[in-house]
Amino acid sequence: MTYVDGFVAAVPKANKDKYVAHAKAAAALFKQWGATRVTENWGDAVPKGELNDFYTAVHAKEDEVVVFSWIEYPDKATRDAVQHKMMNDPEMLNVPDMPFDGKRMIFAGFANLLDV
């Protein structure tokens, strides 16, 4: 069964091109290591909520855009192997630095429930 890692981050609007460069380089490695799909999405219609929303979840500032991303894997074992390489493989040193505050990024792994 497929497995997905999901991410939400606040990226300065001025860093969009740097973010794309970072994401492309990282995605190439993730796919080389076994990910089946990497999707990056720049916030376009992200509403403000009354109690909570994407902006508050990542403490987005006025000059930042919410980015919503996910990586798909064939199974959790592949995801775990890719995560290990992400943290330990020297090839990651060639990926441009994250052009945003990674401490405010939220992420989690999800087992697939429905895929239609």
Account of the 3D structure:
Helix content is 30%, strand content 28%. With 116 residues, it is an alpha+beta fold. It has a single domain, classed as Alpha-Beta Plaits (2-Layer Sandwich), CATH 3.30.70.100. The chain has a 4-stranded antiparallel sheet. The two termini are 14 Å apart. The mean pLDDT is 97.
Percent helix range: 25-40%
Computed Rg: 15 Å
Mean pLDDT: 97
**Number of spatially distinct domains:** 1
End-to-end separation: 14 Å
Describe what is shown at a glance:
The chain has helices at 16-33, 54-57, 76-88; strands at residues 3-12, 37-42, 64-73, 106-111. The chain has 116 residues and is of the alpha+beta class. It holds the Pfam family DUF1428.
Key attributes of the depicted protein:
single chain; 116 residues; alpha+beta; Alpha-Beta Plaits; four-stranded antiparallel β-sheet; 3 helices; 4 strands; globular; RNA signal recognition particle 4.5S RNA; DUF1428; Dimeric_a/b-barrel
